[in-house]
Structure prediction request, 375 residues.
Amino acid sequence: MPLTIEQIDYPQLAQQIKKWGQALGFQQVTITDTELAETGKRLNQWLQKDYQGDMQWMSEHGEKRYHPEQLLPGTQRVISVRMDYLPDDSNMIAVLKDEDKAYISRYALGRDYHKLIRKRLTTLAKEIEHAVPDSIIQRPFVDSAPVMEKPLAEKAGLGWMGKHTLIINSEAGSWFFLGEIYTSLPLPVDQSTEADQCGDCKACLKVCPTDAFPEPYVLDARRCISYLTIEHKGSIPEEFREPMGNRVFGCDDCQAICPWNKAATPTTEKDFSPRHNLGNRELAELFLWSEAEFLKFTEGSPIRRIGYERWLRNLAIGLGNAPTSDKILNALNSRQAYPSEIVREHVKWALSRHALSKTGNRKRKRKITNALINR
Prediction:
């Protein structure tokens, strides 16, 4: 007779799951339970301060976010995975130094991680289903649905929550994606976790261009450049435009300065390699892309999700912060009559910056600390 679900050797199955996961390209596969009560309290305190900005979905779904068994009834365990993404020789600091260049967060230079990781998690889930005799409940997640990825990763032993609110692994730093599989299998839970090793370091807090950390371990998304350039759909408040510098899609400063990332290993995943030289392009060149070119060159990229209008909005700010030149001015002038009011507003702001530069009244306060720019 075939084995029943009660007769499965769960420790052996857990080890096999980790082997399957590593064969699929995950650098680490760990297992944890669903207990997130304290995390739920912290989330609600964060929401009460409106730190989520326009991300209203953060307050939706009630308790499902910190009660996995409510999101997927029957869930007993969470399989948490890590996949490194830092491209080799990504020239982060060199691009930040060059004010004519567009800085794009390193995670967005290659293929959209959502699709890649979800596909591999789906394959891993199928491997598990084939290995057990009875039907089980499972569902993979990649930065989707109300799933608290970072607290789960911390519980599972993938690292600790750094002061910049990202997960840090003592061997891999923080340049990695997270993914999960909710499962009804009562797998043994990994007991090895990493203690917080940030110590007295506050480098990530000090380097933030827009002072988005009101206190260690707390992010005010409303001030975060990643939020402003990606999630925020309207006009970007003027107080943040100059500090944004040339960052047009996301921001990596808090990771770039982190001591734990000094020895981070570049990814071997080819799909995360920069495409179309997006890691080293000029602001003016990208600003002059037609919408068709934008769609062409961002196909399969997480950049496409912001759409062409916000792409131009972000680039206009970068151009406003760049040194005055005919190329910059010509690019901005070409969009003065653009149909979008948001784009026109940011172009007008950028041109006013260059007008002040010509009269000598422009006071530039480009906040990239010496600790980062001189690395």
